[in-house]
Amino acid sequence: MKNITRYITLSMLACGIGTFTQSCNNKLDITPEGAPSKGNYWKTPEDAVKGANALYANYDEEEFYGRGFFWFINASDDMVTGRNNAQAENVRNFSSTYIGGGYTEPQWQYRYAIIKRANDILRYVPTISMDGALKKRILGEANFNAGYMYFQLAANYADERAGVPIVTVENMDNELATPRAANIEENYLHVEKLLKSAADQLPFFDELAKVDYGRAHKVAAWALLSKMYLYKKDYKIANLYADSVINQGKRGLEPVFTDVFKASNNWGTEYIWSATSSPSGRSGWGSILPGVMLTNGAWGLYNGWGYYLPTKELYDSYEKGDARREATILKPGDKFMFFGEERSFTPAGSATCDMQFNKYMEPFSHPSPIGSHVSPNGDHMATDLNVPLIRFAEILLIKAESLIMLNGTGAGDKELNLLRKRADLDEMQGMTLTDLKRERRNELAGEFTDRHRDLVRWGDAAATYAKPLHTYAMVDPATGKPIVFPGRKFDPKIHHVWAVPQQEIDNSNGIIKQNQGW
């Protein structure tokens, strides 16, 4: 958010008027003249804008769209933890000992903090005398961000036995914690309400001023509705909202797959919603995922962390000639540009696997990129590349899956062949759900679209996770034999949802209950 994030430091007093379960990020706080309160805030148009800016503050958090959420995605068969890390392996192995660890605990907090800020906007902004179009947009931003947060909370923690708490303007001041909703359906109904309101209130992306790029827009709400309905298995409505994006959203595919992951296309046609990022300032801003995936130590040139390394199973899933494979994965000996020079890929000595995701490497390709393309702070490795959360290719995949589920084999051929053509593959006819699953995996590998959640919703997780995973060519130096990551036990009656963070149960005095089996 190179444009709007420079205003966020001036917006955090909105956060100070009460945050759900946590204080604001210290590095973004300012000290206003006089403590903000309901009596002296939410009076002016400037207050409303600052409140809207505060909705995006947590997107800069390391354990949010930096790496925290990605520990859950790291449980999939596409990747392994790139360094020896007991806490990360507890998550991957669906062990209840991960509960209480710092990596995933903040996910609940950060999302409800944004919901609290959205509720403040929905409560107070309607009474502020201000430009009607601006007010409408700000209310839409609040509805969108709350809807997005509830969708991810529900997808990760809710099922037919228990939903996540629904905190609204009407109950947000209750002294006692809000109990969990009865089931995930209640959560999805609330998400539907919020996102439909957002879609009505928000402008199209191309109607935003450049300074407002990074804010929620109409097509992002449609896209998220389409994904929510896919998760609900309401394929007819998922298809309708996908059509809204495809036919009315003014979005489309970048012609070349590698161009999707270039900073010059941050605001191009493919990205619908992203963790907008910038290297500006002492620490940069936004998602640090590019640095988290970068080889540990980055060959002595930067502080890569070396997590989330791709598996041989992912590499082998690509068809011969698929341009997406090398664009997605670096393997030993592959040539790539780094700090302005061509290198031949070698893994770090500490790496548990001998490959690395390649999608987010463009910022590091430039000569002397630190400060111009990459954050000067190696502990907060934001870059000038927006990290995609929802892109147009996924909408094509949602439509294709919905059509196959509704009408059978071949119904999604048109959409899938658009992706295959871009990947330099021959078109196919009569593609099945199995083909759809492969295309979704190969198109979206290493992204926040959540391969783990796909396997769970398809009913494939238990069988998939029981199989071992492998490196490309790495061997155990002690035995000389190939490294094997053993299969894992996934219980679909328990592990289809993640454990509620223990601190939320404790802070609620037991009102919020743990998911069964955890």
Task: Characterize the overall form.
Answer: globular
Given helix and strand content, the structural type is mainly alpha
How much helix, percentage-wise, in residues? 25-40%
Average of the residue pLDDT scores: 93
Distance between the termini: 38 Å
H and E string: HHHEHHHHHHEHEHHEEEEEHHHHHEEH
Spatial order of strands in the largest sheet = 1-3
Oligomer: single chain
Radius of gyration: 22 Å
So how many helices? 18
* Counted beta strands: 10
Largest sheet: 2 strands, antiparallel
Low-confidence stretches: 9-36
Task: Please describe the structure with a list of short key phrases separated by commas or semicolons.
518 residues; mainly alpha; two-stranded antiparallel ribbon; 7% strand; globular
Description:
With 518 residues, the protein is mainly α. The protein has 18 helices and ten strands. Strand 5 and strand 6 form a beta hairpin. The longest helix has 26 residues. About 5% of the residues have low confidence.
Question: What's a concise summary of this model?
Answer:
With 518 residues, the chain is mostly helical. 37% of the residues lie in helices and 7% in strands. It contains 18 helices and 10 strands.
